Amino acid sequence: MSKDRAEVGNLQNLLSRVGAGLDEFLKFEHPDSLVNKDTWRTALEQPLPQHGAGIDEVTRELVELVIPNGSQVCKPGFTAFITTGATSASTLASTAASIAAPQRYTHTAFNYIEELSLEWLAQMCGLGNMKGIYSSGGSVANLVGLGAARQYAFEKLGHDPARDGVNRTVSVYASSECHHTIQRAGGVLGIGRRAIKPIACDELGRMRVDALQAAIDQDLRDEILPMAIVANAGTTNRGAIDPLKSIGEIAQGHGIWLHVDGAYGLPGILDERLSHFYEGLELVDSIIVDPHKWLGASIGVAATFVNDRNLLERAFTQEPADYLEGSVDDIVTENAQLEHSLDDFGIRYFNYGVELSAPCRGIVVWALIREIGVEGMRERIVRHNDMARELAEFCKQHPRLELLLEPTLSVCCFRYVAPEIGDLDRLNQKIHRRLVRENVYMPSTTRINGQLALRPCFLGARADHPQVDGLIQAVIRIGDALVAEQA
What we know:
By secondary structure, this protein is α/β, with parallel strands linked by helices. It has a domain at 91-368: Type I PLP-dependent aspartate aminotransferase-like (Major domain) (Aspartate Aminotransferase, domain 2, 3-Layer(aba) Sandwich), CATH 3.40.640.10. It has helices spanning 11-25, 37-44, 55-66, 88-100, 109-124, 138-155, 161-164, 181-188, 209-221, 244-254, 309-316, 322-325, 362-397, 424-438, 466-486, and strands at 78-79, 131-135, 170-175, 196-199, 225-232, 257-261, 286-289, 302-306, 401-405, 413-416, 442-448, 451-455. The protein has a 7-stranded mixed sheet with strand order 2-8-7-6-5-3-4, sandwiched between helices. Strands 1-11-12 form a 3-stranded mixed sheet, covered by helices on one side. Helix 1 (11-25) runs parallel beside helix 3 and helix 4 (88-100) runs antiparallel to helix 13. The longest helix is centred in the last third of the chain and has 36 residues, at 362-397. The protein is globular and about 75 Å long.
């Protein structure tokens, strides 16, 4: 038997070996990958193989060399970037799809679940009957939403920007706290990064409605087309939620597309204590959420929802190709009886976004929701929000800690303070680097009203209350040690 067929019938055993290696990894007892870098780099640094080593050897190297030297992102104490390790349900679903349905198209159970999971996700997040499409992350999801906004704004003027390009200057109004992918989307969509106009925020990091209105009024006087407003439902820096209802009313009053970046924070609507912050979602034209953030999906799963998915088709449709459209039976109509899964592409997501080839991402979201349900997701969201509040309350009581911003979602911004130290920003930067080197509790830093803050975002499915106390004690211990060193 040729080596490229040797794994047939052996997959169960191979997956068991990899699974055992992953179980060991999830004990989180391994050091950082750079501790043993010389060992694993030396073993892996080989010339291009001319003859294969076989699947057993590949599996051994995965288990012994690669997996143990993986990322720290998966650790329960990792609270830096708004991403996390996949849950077991996500891992199982994505593994199944990679073998059984490597593309999301044609009439299969995977294609059906792609749409079903989008419907579940929309309902869970309070989006009603909005229709969606999955993509690789918030960067592409925002691009898709703003692509719809561009199409909408120019079609009202009798122009097709997807076909003919943009023909006038536009503005997209986004808060100064918006994610930088919004600027990149402006560049990719041909309206230019400078078309993204930053709108000032209040002291809590929320878009100021008066500043938004003033910017729109000025552009109308200057005959610049207001293309879209981008609001936030959970900013990356602070977890702030913009006043969605007031912004939505302005958008409707001027006929401007309202896009909401809820990549991180939209699932926060499940916390009933915070649901009032999400009032106004009914006024939204497009909105994104990343299941690979708070919901525990494997990386590479984001969703864009719009009220009218036909608009996405006009914005992103690709010209027909003989090898694609010609490969399905051209007599198949909507009412015809399909006889084979390849008689039709199923839902043609390739016309709703920027990807033709794409994995079955919906199966991951389906598995996550099917496993623990809305109530399980709600419990996770509430737990993480409680962790941020627990940290905030401790900071208010401890003389060496200062809360820099009351948390809204699961982000808490605080710092270590020592009156005898002049440069607190530098002190907290040193605390942060020592935390990272210790490899247990790993927040990021940001700036709140000009002050450097330690910024944990409690997000991972494996994160629980012990991580709060551990982080607090580590910050105080390291801070006290640094102060003593300077005494």
